[in-house]
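Section 3.1: Structural characterization of target chains.
Under the original work plan, the team committed to producing a structural model for every single-chain target entering the pipeline before any wet-lab resources were allocated. The record below documents one such target. The sequence was received from the expression subgroup and is listed exactly as submitted; it comprises 67 residues.
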Amino acid sequence: MCPHQPPCPPPDAPDRDAARTLVRHPEQGWSLLCNGVVVFEDTGELLPDGEAIAPQRPIARSATSAA
């Protein structure tokens, strides 16, 4: 249970990334949030129930020449 006020969003909420960070390991590329979600620097997530959420980064568009 989250001790923060207001409480952090649960891991199944759409705004789960708004939970407070408990542990950061930038050298390994991940952080543990108060709600048990592990977030990765590539924006992927691992939920407490083991479900993996794919990275949500925008797709970079490369310039192509029409020559």
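The chain has a mean pLDDT of 88.
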